[in-house]
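Lecture notes, continued. The same structure-token format from the folding unit now serves as the input rather than the output. Read the line below as a description of shape only.
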């Protein structure tokens, strides 16, 4: 065994799984977790754009038993909570001693600052940074508003591997055009794979990464002061039944809001279906709800919504990101309360 190999074996392998809102990052991570070698310990670090974290609950609920999940909600850790990545990753590694960590940044996260942190002095002697995988939806590339966004372009540009996901719901021409575009990027991608539901071989995670991929738009997501919230941290607040905590987190041209409910609150499933699948101009919606005897996971991207049961049972929570910059949430909040069972 070469000294290089033995050194790398003692380091924690780390992969960044990037991609825009709702493209299938968490789905891909669940898929990779299901292929984890039995003798390895893996941990997942998830960053949520909004104040209310949901992906951690999804991965805890649907992921493989024994995988540690840590979540940072309340802004992208590439900007507003830039120090959180250092501390959270360090803490996760020290607490869980993993062989591998998968990091899911928010869909609005710019990869440059994150990669810079992972390549920086804090982690140089601790982690072995492997391929950055960008999950992407051909429909986003066909949508000029998304395709021209600097964050979307740099997520693709800085990826070593691109997983073109959701090919089942894209028209074939859109997938072909997108793949042709990806083939023209420089430096070339190590791999471009078309898939559905994030299916890919776990061996992709060990592919090489390179620091040669520099951002096209380094200032697309400048550091911002930490967002102030008026509400106390979740752990300090005792939520009363029927009195959810509401946390708004607008950013740039998107309004966003989250709700946390008491674990005792139970919802009417039909009322939820109608409200969450309704006419709001949703870009992304995620929620877990106690419907009495079962928990449901709602997942909506644009107009497509799915609802499935989930083996999770902490508290009901919802996070919504809209396509518009401002929204008065009061009426929606009233409707949400009306979905509660008496
Ligand atoms: N039709 C279709 N839906 C998918 C596919 N991959 C993921 N989804 C769904 O897209 C939604 C968003 O997926 P998620 O993994 O949460 O996306 P993330 O926001 O990027 O983490 C969920 O409802 C998934 O079930 C796919 O290949 N095809
Ligand atoms: Mg996710």
């Amino acid at each position: 065994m070469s000294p290089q190999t033995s050194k790398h074996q003692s380091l924690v392998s780390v992969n960044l799984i990037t991609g825009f809102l709702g493209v299938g990052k968490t789905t891909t991570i669940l898929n990779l977790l299901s292929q984890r070698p039995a003798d390895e310990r893996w941990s997942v670090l998830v960053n949520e754009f909004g104040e209310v974290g949901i992906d951690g609950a999804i991965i805890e609920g649907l992921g493989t038993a024994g995988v540690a999940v840590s979540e940072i909600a309340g802004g992208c850790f590439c900007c507003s909570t830039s120090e959180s990545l250092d501390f959270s990753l360090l803490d996760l590694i020290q607490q869980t001693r993993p062989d591998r960590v998968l990091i899911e940044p928010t869909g609005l996260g710019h990869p440059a600052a994150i990669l810079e942190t992972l390549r920086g002095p804090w982690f140089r002697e601790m982690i072995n940074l492997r391929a950055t995988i960008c999950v992407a939806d051909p429909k986003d590339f066909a949508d000029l508003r998304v395709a021209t966004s600097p964050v979307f372009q740099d997520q693709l540009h800085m990826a070593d591997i691109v997983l073109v996901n959701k090919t089942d719901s894209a028209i074939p021409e859109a997938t072909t055009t997108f793949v042709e575009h990806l083939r023209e990027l420089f430096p070339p991608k190590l791999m471009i794979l078309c898939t559905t539901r994030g299916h890919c071989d776990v061996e992709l995670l060990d592919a090489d990464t390179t620091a040669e991929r520099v951002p096209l738009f380094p200032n697309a997501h400048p550091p911002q002061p930490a967002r102030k919230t008026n509400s106390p941290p979740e752990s300090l607040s005792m939520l009363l039944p029927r009195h959810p905590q509401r946390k708004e987190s607008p950013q740039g041209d998107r309004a966003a809001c989250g709700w946390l409910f008491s674990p005792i609150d139970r919802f009417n499933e039909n009322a939820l279906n109608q409200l969450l699948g309704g006419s709001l101009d949703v870009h992304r919606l995620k929620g877990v709800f106690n419907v009495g005897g079962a928990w449901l996971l709602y997942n909506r991207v644009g107009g497509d919504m799915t609802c499935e049961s989930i083996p999770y049972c902490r508290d009901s929570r919802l996070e919504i990101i809209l396509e518009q910059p401002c929204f008065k949430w009061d009426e929606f909040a009233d409707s949400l309360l009306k979905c509660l069972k008496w």
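Point for the exam: Residues 19, 21-27, 107, 165-166, 168-169, 196-198, 299, 301, 306 surround guanosine-5'-diphosphate (ligand 1) (CB under 6 Å).
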